[in-house]
């Protein structure tokens, strides 16, 4: 009986020691080592790829898209796009959060609707009409054939921070007019913030909307 109790005690003590050692190694030392290496090798990415404006204020992350809408007026339920800014891709795939009422959480997801789905077809049709209307100015008329696919469809996650250079340039005349800038000034911003294919052959050229709008705000502040 005593031997059995002693053996049980030794097994429990060995298990406790293993738990303590693994907790220190995996729960303390390893995370500290990984964090330290990340901070030394790639501090920007390790801290969330934050984007700062000219004053040094963090305005968001380069990895997550965000909307640029006017504040809701009394009685309004749907936000209206603030057309002073470059607009991102649609986010029809995003859900809403009804559990946490203290914070508005971002929920990612796609619509998962097929190409012949009536709702999806209607969304794309309405989105294309809105893009044409919003981006046409007195001296520049946007044609439906000018509207690229990313202007009327959401990404798989619904949180894509990038748009195509074609969609960015489609918005140039409207952004220039709304901000009292020249088309050349705004077009130069788009060119400066267009990233090419990764390693020259992976993916497609893209424009980060948050970085572009941050540069736009800095430019308008100087004029």
Give structural notes:
It is a single chain. By secondary structure, the protein is mainly alpha-helical. It has two domains: 1-47; 64-222, no CATH class. Helices cover 44% and strands 6% of the residues. The protein is built from seven helices and five strands, in the order ααββαβαααββα. It has helices at 2-41, 43-46, 118-135, 165-170, 172-178, 183-192, 209-222, and strands spanning 50-52, 58-61, 162-163, 194-195, 206-208. The strands form two sheets. It has a three-stranded antiparallel β-sheet with strand order 3-5-4. A two-stranded antiparallel sheet has the order 1-2. Strand 1 (50-52) and strand 2 (58-61) form a beta hairpin. The longest helix has 40 residues, at 2-41. It is elongated, with a radius of gyration of 25 Å. The chain starts with a helix and ends with a helix. The mean pLDDT is 87.
């Amino acid at each position: 009986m005593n031997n059995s109790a002693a053996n049980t005690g030794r097994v429990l003590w060995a298990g406790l020691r293993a738990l303590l050692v693994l907790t220190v190694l995996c729960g303390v030392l390893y995370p500290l080592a990984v964090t330290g290496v990340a901070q030394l090798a790639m501090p920007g990415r390790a801290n969330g790829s934050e984007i700062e404006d000219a004053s040094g204020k963090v305005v968001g992350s380069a990895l997550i898209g965000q909307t640029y809408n006017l504040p809701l007026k009394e009685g309004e339920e749907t936000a209206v796009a603030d057309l002073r800014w470059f607009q991102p891709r649609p986010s029809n795939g995003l859900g809403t959060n009804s559990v946490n009422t203290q914070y508005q959480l971002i929920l990612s997801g796609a619509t998962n609707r097929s190409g012949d789905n009536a709702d999806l077809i209607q969304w794309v049709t309405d989105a294309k009409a809105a893009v044409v209307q919003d981006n046409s100015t007195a001296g520049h008329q946007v044609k439906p054939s000018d509207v690229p696919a990313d202007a009327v469809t959401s990404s798989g996650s619904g949180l894509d921070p990038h748009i195509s250079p074609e969609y960015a340039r489609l918005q140039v005349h409207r952004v220039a007019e709304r901000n009292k800038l020249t088309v050349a000034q705004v077009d130069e911003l788009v060119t400066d913030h267009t990233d090419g294919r990764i390693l020259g052959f992976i993916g497609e050229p893209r424009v980060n909307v948050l970085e572009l709008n941050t540069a736009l705000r800095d430019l308008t502040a100087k004029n």
